[in-house]
Amino acid sequence: MGETGTMTSFSPSTGVRRTGRDPRPDPGWCRPVEEGQRAYRAAASVVDPEIPVVTIEDLGILRSVEVDGDTAIARLTPTYTGCPAVLAIELAVEAALRDAGFEPRVERVVSPAWTTDWITPEGREKLRDYGIAPPAKASNSIRALFGETEVACPRCGSGETARISEFGSTACKALYRCEACHEPFDYFKCI
């Protein structure tokens, strides 16, 4: 708890939440909110080591950041349990929070499981600009679950594409080829 007996939490879905044990008005109420936002921004700036153009916020991996005194607690949900980048991301978040002046703590949250639906619109656009086709359909689509997905080429926009391999540069991506421009590209699979 901070000096006033309060704790702040910040997440993109809930915003800032202030809870406290001290019922008296807190004359410094802005400081905890600013600290929570500063901690969140620091963690949110961490880029994915496998796709360096998107942040963990863009991918929806960062669930929340809570500030308790000098400690910032970041909650992350890995894209999948066996993802080799999980430890690298957690260490990068710790470093970012430490650089921002906090004592870092990272907690791995596995429920609910991450889904490609959590990728932000900005993240999808960044993937496309980088040459990776973002997930085409909602993760709960029966067609997406069985790999019957129409994928547009991120380079020319053509829908005339063919899957070359179920696995691309990483396990969460499939390798496709555009029949119009003949370029290969990764497709971020629906999960």
From TrEMBL:
Signal peptide: none annotated. Residues 1-30 are annotated as: Disordered. Coiled coil: none annotated. This is 1,2-phenylacetyl-CoA epoxidase, subunit D. Gene3D superfamilies: Fe-S cluster assembly (FSCA) (3.30.300.130). NCBIfam families: PA_CoA_Oxy4 (TIGR02159). The gene is paaD. SUPFAM superfamilies: Fe-S cluster assembly (FSCA) domain-like. Residues 44-106 form the MIP18 family-like domain.
